[in-house]
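Retro notes (design track)

What went well: tokenization of the new backbones is finally stable.
What didn't: we kept losing track of which sequence belonged to which structure.
Fix going forward: every design gets posted as structure first, then sequence, in one message. First example under the new rule, 389 residues:
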């Protein structure tokens, strides 16, 4: 007979069984926890896209059925916008008639923050590595009264604050409410484009598990977004509903939402990898959902912003001929300047002219300097010195 251990009356064999069963269930906990987190991230992501979908419909009602598209009618996908610019034309580098310029995918999404008051947290999928919600807190390079609605994009590195791909909004096939309600509008990141936490996936191993392609389920899943472990992607459709699709060819006519169709008349489960910024759908039914790749959308370097009301950012100069302080406001006395100019005129016996003075206002509009009121007179002074020599 097996000996009993302890007062509980269990044999050693029974204790061993209990220990092994307990260890087995403990080994399952990490996998169960990961799965629970993945499912939770999927639910939150779907809810985010549903919120964006409702905001897009409201936006379209106010803009003649057009979905959010940054810039003007002829704006193209390109470099990062001046996210903190004082005007729309400066943000997207538009011409005087509102044409031209470049904008990002994220700046199109940001119109929902600016005009529909959607919080930045709704643009971040919990399963998207390297992405966080955009905030203005902690920034010291902005005026004190600068708010989210004053911006034009999610900061200088906007691609780190927007998790979603968007139907290419620029060009001939920009989406409007008149398109098919089953047309995909937005989804998790495109697997073929670089993202903050992922390198672009190779298309060589992708093959739909549909006839006549005869791919395996594993090969078919290679076309899915990386945001949910390759299991699928949340997709927002034009009618406003959101679904978790286990395959990327969930558009019209089984169109692949992340590739440019090989069929010029309809969608296709296979296609060409979009190469930013020259991305054009093959036809009106072709879904091409893209996001901003980090290497393309680097924010331009700008001069540090100075506060014109701060004495710490201000220096006094005798005349405009003196060396001007870098990245500071400059104060000078116009009366003293005129007296100094008259003194020089009396010494050299000829009038002092500043060539191009009549064009200062035009130059002021064409240059981007944080201390432009200081720099422009210096430009005029340099022109004067060059003409004299």
């Amino acid at each position: 007979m097996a000996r009993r251990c302890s007062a509980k009356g269990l044999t050693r064999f029974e204790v061993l069984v209990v220990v092994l069963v307990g260890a087995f269930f403990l080994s399952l906990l990490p996998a169960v926890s990961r799965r629970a987190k993945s499912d939770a991230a999927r639910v939150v992501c779907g809810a985010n896209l549903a919120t964006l979908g409702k905001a897009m419909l409201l936006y379209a009602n106010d803009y003649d059925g057009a979905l959010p598209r940054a810039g003007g009618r002829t704006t193209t996908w390109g470099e990062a916008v001046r996210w903190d610019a004082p005007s729309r034309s400066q943000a997207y580098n538009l011409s005087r008639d509102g044409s031209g310029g470049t904008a990002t995918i994220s700046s199109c999404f940001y119109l929902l923050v600016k005009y529909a008051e959607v919080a930045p947290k709704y643009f971040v999928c919990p399963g998207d590595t390297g992405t966080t919600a955009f905030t203005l807190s902690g920034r010291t390079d902005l005026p004190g009264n600068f708010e989210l609605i004053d911006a034009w994009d999610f900061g200088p590195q906007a691609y780190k604050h927007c998790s979603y791909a968007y139907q290419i909004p620029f060009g001939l096939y920009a989406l409007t409410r008149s398109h098919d309600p089953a047309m995909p509008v937005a989804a998790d990141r495109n697997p073929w484009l670089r993202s903050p936490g992922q390198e672009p996936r190779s298309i060589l191993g992708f093959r739909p598990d549909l006839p006549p392609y005869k791919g395996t389920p594993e090969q078919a899943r290679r076309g899915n977004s990386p945001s949910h472990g390759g299991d699928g992607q949340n997709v927002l459709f034009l009618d406003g509903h959101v679904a978790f699709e286990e395959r990327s060819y969930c558009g019209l006519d089984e169109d692949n939402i992340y590739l440019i169709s090989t069929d010029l008349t309809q969608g296709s489960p296979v296609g060409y990898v979009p190469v930013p910024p020259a991305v054009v759908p093959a036809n009106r039914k072709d879904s091409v959902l893209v996001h901003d790749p980090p290497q393309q959308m680097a924010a331009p370097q700008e001069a540090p912003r100075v506060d014109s009301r701060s004495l710490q950012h201000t220096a006094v100069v005798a005349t405009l001929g003196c060396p001007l302080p870098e990245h500071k406001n400059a104060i000078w006395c116009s009366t003293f300047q005129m007296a100094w100019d008259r003194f020089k005129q009396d010494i050299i016996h000829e009038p002092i002219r500043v060539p191009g003075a009549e064009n200062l206002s035009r130059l002021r509009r064409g240059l981007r300097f944080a201390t432009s009121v200081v720099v422009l007179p210096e430009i005029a002074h340099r022109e004067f010195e060059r003409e004299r020599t």
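Added context from the reviewer: The radius of gyration is 30 Å.
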